UniProtKB/TrEMBL annotation:
It is an enzyme of class 6 (ligase). Its cofactor is Mg(2+); Mn(2+). This is DNA ligase. The keyword Cell membrane does not apply. Keywords: DNA damage, DNA repair, DNA replication, Ligase, Magnesium, Manganese, Metal-binding, NAD, Zinc. The active site is at K118 (n6-amp-lysine intermediate). NAD(+) binds at D32, D33, M34, Y35, D36, S84, L85, D116, R139, E176, K293, K317. It comes from Buchnera aphidicola (Cinara pseudotaxifoliae). Zn(2+) binds at C411, C414, C429, C435. DNA ligase that catalyzes the formation of phosphodiester linkages between 5'-phosphoryl and 3'-hydroxyl groups in double-stranded DNA using NAD as a coenzyme and as the energy source for the reaction. It is essential for DNA replication and repair of damaged DNA. SMART domains: LIGANc. NCBIfam families: dnlj, PRK07956.1. GO terms for molecular function: DNA ligase (NAD+) activity; metal ion binding.
């Protein structure tokens, strides 16, 4: 049962972390497909073992709608919760959705459905009182979001005042803020010219634009807005149809996309979906599916909601577009934890308007499972319309010119013999800080925002410091001086003073951040938090043993082996002890 417990806890922590990355930071690190797979695993395990007392929780991640707000903006409490949507990419689930509702209301002759596009942007809620916009907020955790009214007011398509007849005393307008593909392209081109951050996709660009502290920056981004629904709707005029309510909202001056459908046959819903699949590439904004809602407000109320989803609505998402191409090479990259990742390079192809030429194969096991050869023809897609992945190898097109991929036995950087990871899925270099390629990644990670965070010491400056000979291990960050920095090309007097000041500030670091900054194999931020909470001091952590760490709730056997292997390495331990001497490492329960 402990292994099941560990798996469930680990999945809960992963989902919590990815919710935070997506909803709060607007910087997801996995695709929607991968997130859904993790969530489905947790649902199955909790359904099977959830009755066990050890696995019960007062705040299950499956009920979480969004994530915590950032502390940059003030809080804004929603009048009604901003629920998420249950989603599927299986058309047969929509047929079952229809059958289930008709079975529930067998006395109702016709069930009408309202369908519209699922725009890939940032959901916001706008609160109007007596026709005046009084607040605007992000989804947040579903109940409390971030007050972004100043930035929302820069979007010209959002009325500051409702005009027309029968204006409600209170109304929450729900909609999606997004950026057009054409504007997104211009934004990134300008960012390249000005050497600023490049956004990975339009959704992140829209979300990042809405979270600017300076509304003037938001205004320059040409954000768009479409209404998809509402929360509180208090009006003298009684309207009992979702479609009719949206049409009234449109009359009040709010934009609603013209591509919507009101129908009473599930076959028409599927036809709308198929047309959206065909036409999505012609749109100047990103959509990732369609949304189907029961049109009757009366039936919506009868069906009600779960803690996370309305039972009267469902999202039917698109399958990623597959494109055929040819593998021309496979290279191997060394990550900051020493993990060796195969990367497949192929003839460049255009997928949903983006040119891709390579895809991570993640690990040895997946490479073996794919059974891919150099010169093979494969189908490639963008998982979640973001991450390039190989779908399948076209075996029928394989010819005599294919070459087998040879997985390296020795580290390409330091020559150390590669070891199998404890979960037997990957190979890794065990040399840690002694491996040059791995050490570079470790130093970058150590000083990054995720680590102890030394502002001003990005990748380029770290490489310069390594080349000059000033930087070998994380300890060397704290031996840097103003005079040393002055020798580094591109670092002037002003930046040198800032870096030294930031190094001094970074010496006060939370235990969880310190543990995570070390780059231990399989120890992410969630695991680092568990370890920090258990040990409460760096000395107790480094003096642990396998028996102790493996008994911590949420820490599995493989992660325990990784931790102990890292701590038993004499070079690692020497570096950690020097860091403990240099830093003020403290435990915080916050």
């Amino acid at each position: 049962m402990k292994s099941i417990y560990d798996k469930i806890v680990n999945l809960r922590l992963q989902l919590k972390y990815h919710n935070y990355r997506y909803y709060t930071l607007d910087a997801s690190v996995i695709s929607d497909d991968m997130y859904d797979k993790l969530r489905d695993q947790l649902i199955k395990l909790e359904k099977k073992y959830g009755k066990n007392n050890l696995l019960k929780t007062d705040n299950p991640i499956l009920k979480q709608i969004g994530s915590k707000k950032l502390h940059i903006f003030s809080e804004c409490v929603h009048q009604t919760p901003m629920l998420s949507l249950k989603s599927t990419n299986n058309v047969s689930d929509i047929i079952r959705f229809d059958e289930k509702i008709k079975k529930r209301f067998n006395t109702v002759n016709t069930i009408k459905y309202y369908c519209d596009f699922k725009i890939d942007g940032l959901a916001v809620t706008l609160l109007y009182k007596n026709g005046i916009l009084v607040s605007a907020a992000t989804r947040g955790d579903g109940w409390i979001g971030e007050n972004i009214k100043n930035n929302i007011c820069t979007i010209t398509s959002i009325p500051k005042k409702i005009v027309g007849n029968n204006i409600p005393k209170i109304i929450e307008i729900r909609g999606e803020v997004f950026i057009k593909k054409s504007d997104f392209l211009i934004l990134n081109q300008c960012s390249v010219l000005n050497k600023k951050k490049i956004f990975s996709n339009p959704r992140n660009a829209a979300a990042g634009s809405l979270r600017q502290l300076d509304p003037r920056i938001t205004k320059k981004r040409n954000l768009m807005f479409f209404v998809y629904g509402y929360g509180v709707f208090i009006s003298n005029k009684k309207i009992y149809s979702h479609y009719d309510r949206l049409m009234q909202i449109q009359k009040w001056g709010f934009p609603i996309h013209e591509n919507c459908l009101l129908c009473n046959k599930v076959v028409d819903v599927i036809d709308f979906y198929n047309k959206a699949c065909v036409n999505r590439s012609k749109l100047d904004f990103e959509i990732d599916g369609i949304v189907i809602k029961v049109d009757s407000i009366f039936l919506q109320r009868k069906l009600g909601c779960t803690e996370k989803y309305p039972r009267w609505a469902v999202a039917l998402k698109f399958f990623s577009q597959d494109v055929e191409t040819k593998i021309i090479d496979v290279t191997f990259q060394i990550g900051r934890t020493g993990t060796i990742t195969p990367v497949a390079h192929f003839i460049p192809v255009n997928i949903s308007g983006v040119t891709v030429c390579k895809a991570s194969v993640y690990n040895f096991r997946i490479l073996k499972k794919l059974n891919v050869f150099i010169n093979d023809y494969v189908t490639v897609y963008r998982a979640g319309d973001v991450i390039p992945k190989i779908r399948a190898v076209l075996i029928n097109k394989r010819d005599k010119y294919v070459r087998k991929i040879i997985f390296p036995k020795y580290c390409m950087s330091c020559g150390s013999k590669l070891l199998h990871s404890f979960n037997l899925t990957t190979y890794y270099c065990p040399s840690n800080f002694l491996c040059p390629a791995q050490n570079l990644q470790r130093l970058i990670h150590f000083s990054s925002k995720s680590g102890i965070y030394i502002k001003g010491l990005g990748r380029k400056n770290i490489i310069k410091l390594i080349n000059i000979g000033y930087l070998h291990t994380p300890v060397d960050f704290f031996t840097l001086t103003y005079d040393k920095l002055q020798v580094v090309p591109g670092i002037g007097k002003k930046l040198s003073n800032k870096i030294i000041s930031n190094i001094n500030n970074s010496k006060n670091v939370r235990l969880e951040k310190f543990i995570y900054s070390l780059g231990i194999l399989d120890v992410g931020i969630s695991i680092a938090k568990i370890l920090s909470k258990y040990y409460k001091s760096a000395i107790k952590f480094i003096n642990t043993n396998f028996q102790t760490v493996s008994n911590i709730k949420g820490i599995g056997v493989n992660i325990s082996k990784s931790i102990i292997t890292f701590l038993k390495n004499k070079n690692n331990l020497c570096i950690i002890l020097k860091l403990i001497d240099q830093l003020n490492i403290f435990f915080s329960s916050q």
